[in-house]
Amino acid sequence: RDFGLSQILQLPSSFGNIYLGESFGTFVSVNNESEYAVHQVGVKIELQTSSQRFVLSDTTATPRTTLDPQTTYDATVTHEIKELGVHILVCSTHYTTPDGKKRHFRKFYKFQVSNPLAVKTKLNHHGEGRVFLEAQLQNVSAGPMYLERMRFEPSEHFDFNDLNGFYNSKGQLKEGASVFGDNFIHPQDVRQYLYLLTPRDKDNDRIARTTNALGKLDIVWRSAMGDTGRLQTSQLTRKPPLLEDIEIQPFWLTEGQVRVCLETPFQLGVRIRNYSGQNMKLVLSAIKTKMGSVLLSGLSSRQLGDLAPSCTTETQLEFFPLTPGLQRVTGLKVTDLITGYTKDIDHLCDVFV
């Protein structure tokens, strides 16, 4: 192409693969291929995205006084890529010819920014406001990656446990010990990360149970050439589970392993929490027609007393297993005598007999 005095500002035919989160860098060289010097040479380099325009370098306000024949004016620019889609590198050169005429030209270079990683999440809600977050990470780039960091940053209402490593006898996560063995992830490889989220304020966990914001994933990697890339996901959200007026959770009365034997009574604790905004007067009763192979021993109905909002009460139940194997404890209900509200407990827990 003819740009007037010389053919300058040569760019490669392709930038290769450019990915979101990486630092884009390019070397721009202005070469005076004419037989005489030009003056007041300035170069402005911009990066245009679908929504913004960034000035990466601009020497037009303080141009180089003289550019002699067969000499170059070089510039190196870098920019962290934070948007997907088409990007346009705009290079403008201004100069003055020996006869005092001001000239300028532009060069446009278009390239596509792709996503190097595909992230999918899945949620499993459990009692007491606990949430198991599964994060599936796939390398969709053209080359291998070294994952330098894969970190979950919970929202303000949650604490979390990283379940992707090994723990010592004190329950502390061993540094650098990963269930994946190494930190390399090859093209199209998929890794499944697991995190346990628990309400930060266990005494007042209503906000944590009803919020849709869970947290963010912060991912740092290095390419095959050692270049660093970083991605932070947007806020991971969920559809909050329906918060019922009361919640029932089972628990063992003794620590350690519990053995349940056939035709031998065993004890099980039940914790009930009032999530409504009013006082309750609760009764726990058995529905024998809904019980399976684990029967409730003793009285079929018992008073649990008054329960204020956001408060918890506990009781102990004795069960009698009739059949070996994995059995479901069911056939209970809790009734509020004040409002008439009833909650059927179709699945309290499973026990192996």
UniProtKB/TrEMBL annotation:
<dbReference type="InterPro" id="IPR055427">
    <property type="entry name" value="TRAPPC13_N"/>
</dbReference>
<dbReference type="InterPro" id="IPR010378">
    <property type="entry name" value="TRAPPC13"/>
</dbReference>
<dbReference type="InterPro" id="IPR055429">
    <property type="entry name" value="TRAPPC13_M"/>
</dbReference>
<dbReference type="Pfam" id="PF23647">
    <property type="entry name" value="TRAPPC13_M"/>
</dbReference>
<feature type="domain" description="Trafficking protein particle complex subunit 13 middle">
    <location>
        <begin position="117"/>
        <end position="241"/>
    </location>
</feature>
<feature type="domain" description="Trafficking protein particle complex subunit 13 C-terminal">
    <location>
        <begin position="259"/>
        <end position="353"/>
    </location>
</feature>
<feature type="domain" description="Trafficking protein particle complex subunit 13 N-terminal">
    <location>
        <begin position="2"/>
        <end position="113"/>
    </location>
</feature>
<dbReference type="Pfam" id="PF06159">
    <property type="entry name" value="TRAPPC13_N"/>
</dbReference>
<comment type="similarity">
    <text>Belongs to the TRAPPC13 family.</text>
</comment>
<dbReference type="GO" id="GO:1990072">
    <property type="term" value="C:TRAPPIII protein complex"/>
</dbReference>
<dbReference type="Pfam" id="PF23643">
    <property type="entry name" value="TRAPPC13_C"/>
</dbReference>
<protein>
    <recommendedName>
        <fullName>Trafficking protein particle complex subunit 13</fullName>
    </recommendedName>
</protein>
<dbReference type="InterPro" id="IPR055428">
    <property type="entry name" value="TRAPPC13_C"/>
</dbReference>
